[in-house]
């Protein structure tokens, strides 16, 4: 009877063999089948190698747990291969061959095995029976003196049990979870688990918590965000189960990280524990076990724990050196506040506050006599310490140390023992570290490519600021603030604030507005900024004092927000300058919660991001300035307001095409000339940009000046034509409809017009007929002698004169164009409408004619003589 299943597929590449081994090992250990893990891993390795290396196909691995053992099935997609057939002799084949050994090993190690074929794949399976053992026994350790037992932080050990459903939301929350993290069940049930879990977000290195919850079994460390904002490091054991209806969920057991021994799976026994006298164990395996080759954090954590046990110490720590060996970065601790120390950095060379004992073994009998000798231990109560270097080919790669609360605990002999262990693990640590760096670089490259694409996709300043913050939180930091600098004489201004917990944003923004902004130093790289943490702690202290002094029943109610803000910004805070075109245009501030530090690789990634973000922000600024100038210039080319003409309704609609409303060549004007006479014009200059704007401004202002000099329409346009030609290479040809309107005593309006190359004005009569109101003549800006003449039209009550630019008539949808005829058809439906309604219907018809946005400016001028009332 099958009691558990697990399956995975591995691609046809060399690294899949190691991944398959790890999958089988983790699955069987999670099921408590440690006795057959080694044989299962060996057989799986051979069979998967045959599939992905020799056959060149993907391998499907399935683990089945039965009542009496486990069954492993390995299938590949190459059914044509034959199974070695046993010859008449006892030999199966050449044992030195590089392939074909998987079946021989199955025959030697498995209780039962076999091969199954289908038209699409071949499957090899083997069964490993579990040995007889006492009921309920899985593993046991030796009896230990009380002083050597793991210590708990409280009298009662609390194990939080959190159940997470298929959608990664909290479905169960026990009393111990409430006691540890401060949330009652009603505040957690139904909410995403990501709201409470503080998971490391290093690009390219580790999976997220949602992915970890999908695994059949997972163990490791992360953080849980308490209700007061503090992050508690926890050790977690996840087990994926299914209910009676077949619905999967994950049960998470959580304890404080310092109490991990409560739920941590014991390491598998080393080879020499199996009683075999002829099997020699690698000292490294004996010391550290056999973590996965790419699990650097697991390797380092096991190292410090074994080191502490080996020398009977109170604490142990391991630091890794930077590439230039100038600094050491804390990567693993035990017995110390790991959340406060993780990724903290100390210089290597001797001096105050520096780590002078990094390159050689060193024994410190009493740190009280030599303060600062090991900066990591300052304020921890440790008195004696021994440190040894980790070296690979003579190069310093790290430092391993153990410490005790009692002075004089360690001797040179113990330093040699620790150095021997360090020598055994140094190469493995360096190999895992280089693998982590390579994964980080790949992840960082993908992150920067995506960031560059996002930043390049917008020229809006506010959106650029939001993108900068959203890309850093939570991937690089817990919170982020962006300051902008308008010019060299301006102070940095807080422009955007983001925290991974939205409820902390307001408190963080309020705090940052009360402190002086960081100095805009152009020096590249991240620099520490302690002002937010100092201000937050001072604010929390003042709030606490006020609450205590008040002595009211609600004392402590107001302290919560202050403490939460202090916890949110109490870790390391760094500032990176945003430098573009040799000028500091802003500051990018990144922060961590209490007792947390940035790792050096993250700071380097943030520096790369800040350079790209600075250029994007400056481009957005320049674009905004150009758009503002363009819009201001466009407005200056149009009349500020239209005069009220007695007895005539007037409506104008203007739509500038193009992103940012770039200055175009379309314009209109309506202005008084003398009492009772009004000039109107609508025109279109060839092209866009500054040259077209110059001609547009010349035309509009010249028309007003010349018309008010008493010149008739043809004379006005002749002089304007001469002025345009005088512009020389900057001149542009211009189509223009110019006219003069005079309301009459009988309720009509008399118009005289000159249409110089412009779309003809259309007249709508009361009976619905539409006809051109002028004849086409030569456009301006092309030749000296135009021979223009004016035409007179009388608009009767109810008549409409419609004037448009070619952006209306040349509106296109594929090969179709609205044209003069289409415009006339729309106008014919406007009988009885006001001038405003006529203009609105024309615009609506133009917009609906094509799905794509308009690519040309449009101007619509409608003049209507209203019918007499009553």
TrEMBL record:
SUPFAM superfamilies for the chain: ATPase domain of HSP90 chaperone/DNA topoisomerase II/histidine kinase (SSF55874), GAF domain-like (SSF55781), PP2C-like (SSF81606), PYP-like sensor domain (PAS domain) (SSF55785)
Top-level taxon of origin: Bacteria
Gene3D superfamilies membership: 3.30.450.40, Histidine kinase-like ATPase, C-terminal domain, PAS domain, PPM-type phosphatase domain
Location of the PAS domain: 161-196
Keywords, sorted A to Z: Hydrolase
NCBIfam families, alphabetized: sensory_box
Stated name of the protein: SpoIIE family protein phosphatase
